[in-house]
Amino acid sequence: MAQINATPTSRPVLLVLALALVVLLCYGMRVAFEKPGTALKAEMLASAGAGTSFTLEDGARIPGTGNILVEDELVAVQRVTAEGSPVNSGILLLNNQHTFKVVERGAAGTKVTNHAAGASVKEPGTLFFPENFASFGDEVDELFYLILWITGIAFILTEGFFLFCVFSFWAKPGMRAHHLHGHHTLELVWTLVPAIILVALALLQAGMWKSMKMEIPLADSPDVFEVQVAAQQFQWNFRVAGSDGKFATPDDVPSVGELHVPVGKKVRVVQRSIDVIHCFFLPNYRVKQDVVPGLAVPVWFDTSRAGRFPIMCAELCGLGHTKMGGTLVVHETADFKTWLEKESTLWTSENDGQDRPDWSGASSKIWWWWDQHDVGVHYQGEKTNR
Question: Among 70, 93, 249, 327, which is most buried by a count of CB atoms within 10 Å?
């Protein structure tokens, strides 16, 4: 087998070819991670409102809950069985990949129209992120892409140099390898340069981190809506204060898997775990916060649009981790007021005469545990128990 021996004049050509190969590899990866699309299998009429089922050509490409773009219309959907039951995972997912239920038409002010069979369907968002609905979301995305550019350029340069060395210094008959015992200048450079970049990134994102993690809105502010989250294997338990605006009273509204909040508010979320470490993750709001047993961990986000958005657990919490999903339901102000009054009245009648609030509910023991075991929250000089 003939050996390829690079001459000094061919080495620049090899370097260019190596860099081109790495760039081509990066482009191929970008194409591979492009948000996939599909199409409607049958027409979707403008009159097909909430609760209507429809099918896609390849529903496996679309998440089970959230928003999709049918041509230019934003539609909130949920994957369901043929009978209309929600589908999350397991064998149901394998057997019902293409059927969805309309939750809301014309979300975010888009126009509701007729869509013919074969109309394009795709998940909105960027290459790496879903739609952004957070006030600090643009800063998070920009920081991510800045780091991606830095690491991408470093990857191209290092892999290009590696390939250049492989071909340029191919073994030749009669030539022995030359061993180096270190180069202090080079070692100093490749230590200092990453250190300077990391310090610069830390300083750049300090303000964003402060607004996201440290400046938690106060619970008694008029523009703040507080909710409580109890994480357990393998479900999210939510509680909002009823019509009296106070927690641990008979009109509290508990729910499992669905968190209801009004639009136009700063939502303050106080989280606790009753078993292991979980992670409260709202992709559309760029919120990700570990929920640690023994701590009450606050996090916040602001709601700018009504709609339904996925809630995930981003921490491996056991065998049922993949099933630990939920839905954030953001209501218009009037709709939320109606919903809260109805649910508050319902739970007041359920709890009337009981030993403790929510005694008759499925998550009664959880909220009894929460109210009986206070944990301090100390942010912005706040000293309260949750």
Answer: 70
Query: The domain 217-371: what is its CATH number?
Result: 2.60.40.420
d(C-alpha 167, C-alpha 125), whole Å: 41
Residue 194 CB neighbours (<10 A): 12
Residues 6+ apart with CB under 8 A from 231: 237, 271, 272, 273, 274, 275, 278, 280, 291, 313
**Does the pLDDT value for residue 239 go beyond 80?**
yes
Q: Cβ-count burial of 19 within 10 angstroms (0-12 exposed, 13-18 middle, 19+ buried)? A: middle
DSSP secondary-structure letter at 44? B
Q: What tens digit of pLDDT does each residue of 187-233 get?
A: 898 899 999 999 999 998 888 888 888 888 887 788 889 999 999 88
- Smallest CA-to-CA distance from 265 within 224, 215, 326, 307 is with 224
Q: Where are the domains of the chain?
A: 37-122, 217-371
Sheet holding 297-302, edge to edge: 253-256, 235-240, 224-232, 266-273, 297-302
- Containing 145, the helix (H) or strand (E) segment is helix 137-168
Cα–Cα distances in angstroms (integers) from residue 370 to residues 56, 69, 91, 271, 360, in the given order: 43, 40, 35, 10, 16
Sign of CA dihedral 190, 191, 195, 198: positive
Per-residue tokens: 61: 């490409």
Distance linking the first and last C-alpha atoms of the chain: 74
pLDDT tens digits along 277-331? 999 999 888 889 999 888 888 889 888 888 788 898 988 988 888 888 888 988 8
Amino acid identity, residue 244? D
- Extract the tokens encoding 266: 């700063």
Higher pLDDT, 158 or 36: 158
From the list 291, 305, 227, the residue with the least C-alpha distance to 260 is 227
Q: State which amino acid sits at residue 275.
A: D
The one-letter code for the residue type at 3 is Q
Q: Report the alpha-carbon distance of residue 215 to residue 143 in Å, rounded.
A: 19
Tokens of 280: 């409260």
